[in-house]
Amino acid sequence: MKKAHLAILILVSLLMASCFGNIILGIRSSGIKSPTLGNILKIGIFERNSPAVLDPIDSWDSVSNDMIRHVCDTLWSYDLVDPKLPITMRLATSYFWNAEMDELTVSLRNDVWFHNGAKFNATAVKFTFDRITYFINASGTLPDTTHVCDPSYLFFNMDGNPILNRIEIIDEYTIKLILNKPNSFFIPVLSYEACSILHPNSTPAKEYLEFQEEDILIGTGPFKYVYLIPGDELRIERFNMYWGSATYWDEIIWMYYPDTTTINNALLDGKVDYLRDPLISLIPTFQADDNIIIVEMNTSTTFRYWAINNDRINDTNIRKAMAYAYNYSNFIEEFQQGYAIEAEQFLPPGFPFYNASFKAPYYNISIARQTLKEAFPIETVGLTAQAYGENSTNDDAWSDLILATYTFDPFAWMYPEITQRIINALFSDMDKIGIEMGVVSWNQYIFPYNPPPIWYAAWWPDYLDPFNMLEPILNNMSSSSYLQNNDYLIHKWLKQYEDIDPTNITGRKELVYKIQQRAINELYLLLPISFDKTYFVHHRSLGGVGYNIQGNLWLTDSYFIPGIPRAK
């Protein structure tokens, strides 16, 4: 919604200060209350990770989604307590597709209330999806003064048309979602927080909910949104009319700290119950503390890789040699301190359609050198494909050879954890096979149209379907893909996956395998590096915490364990 004039906010705040001795800018005073006695869960978080937005349709950052997930419901959701992350119905109770698979009829719960007392029904669902259609600018009517919502790409097909054509109300608790064409992952999309169901009585149809206004996020979830004081705290409280099982917590408070060290020490000192994003360097300290529980998920959905501009590095043999020359284990052990696993594919263990038998290229200098010897027989005459370290004379000769030269930005501004040591390691690996890596300023390239030959990237999906791991990276029309992948087969298979019957599990698995096989083991479009490990850290008095590889926070089922002393 429109932001209030700064002068008005200042005036109001000064008046409040004169009367009450407190200054709070832009916060709805009626929403602020003293902490109540009872079961209060305190979460420690870095102050720069305050939720970015209040409105679900504009939300893409994980902290905003964590809050929205506890306040609002979607039609479907993933069971974040089950390690297998099955998708389950939430506000939906049953559904069926028509024969053409382009109409989804959904029956809705009839025992659900919004936090403002309004009844949940088909009207609220239609309002929500009409609002989504507006903010993704599906019809082109969004004013120039209003930005397209951040996760808008989730709602479009690969051909650029919206997935959803329209929504029809059948009766008060039945709706029909009519698609522009069949879509195999539509239900997983509906599980994303952007699809949280809102009510027309509490939500503007054509304006975003804003933290800076007197806006309140009103959903049907287990908690009511109370307030956010940026950099200080975020507070939600139990909704006693929640349709699901009753939650243990009277309130959940996100407590913000100025730096990551202070946050981690807050848990060690017993000032918070749960820690969001623990420092990797302090994991041994947490493990040694009897009052702290640390749970390691041996993977996550955070996929790290070296992205290759396939227009600039347009020789498949060069890309194959690079794939076998890169020392993946060195990156994991030295730069990620062992808190990661090697990525053998786009999908991490535990992800739908993960195939444990699929293997990506691995560190093997002999294969890399043999590939280049066959591709450049004249330039490599007299050299052998011996492994590095077996013949120093041969190694020096390969190092002196310059079969290709590529440059990229050493600063990698998008990912600050990249250091000069990581860059030097890449240079050293490529030097062993006669590929020279140079340095050039990032601003010499134009993203997304003309990215560097190679750069470090990361991706994590919004919903748990392989399409959301594959398409953003491999589809040239995606705003997230800079690989310049023009392979006809990969694009054909992505389209087939998009259009396939969602119940055809075998067909979907086969397409995922073919896409990965061609991208990673035939064309070598990128170098998969690693998946981060996921860690959950909390005080030992806290039980029932949901652990999942997505790292999505879900504390509705948690509680204080009787008989165990709580944090302070």
Structure characterization notes:
There is one protein chain. This protein is of the alpha+beta class. The protein has 4 domains: 1-29, no CATH class; 33-50 and 230-296 and 537-568, Periplasmic binding protein-like II (D-Maltodextrin-Binding Protein, domain 2), CATH 3.40.190.10; 52-59 and 68-217, Dipeptide-binding Protein, domain 1 (Alpha-Beta Complex); 303-532, Roll (Dipeptide-binding Protein, domain 3). It has 14 helices and 21 strands. It has helices at residues 6-20, 62-71, 122-135, 186-190, 260-268, 283-288, 316-325, 328-335, 365-375, 392-400, 420-431, 467-474, 488-499, 505-522; strands spanning 40-46, 76-78, 87-89, 92-97, 103-108, 164-171, 174-179, 223-229, 233-238, 251-257, 274-275, 292-297, 303-308, 340-342, 404-408, 435-439, 454-459, 526-532, 534-539, 542-543, 559-560. The strands form 6 sheets. A 7-stranded mixed sheet has the order 8-9-10-1-11-19-12, sandwiched between helices. Strand 15 (404-408), helix 11 (420-431) and strand 16 (435-439) form a beta-alpha-beta unit. The longest helix has 18 residues, at 505-522. Residues 1-36 and 412-416 have low confidence and may be disordered.
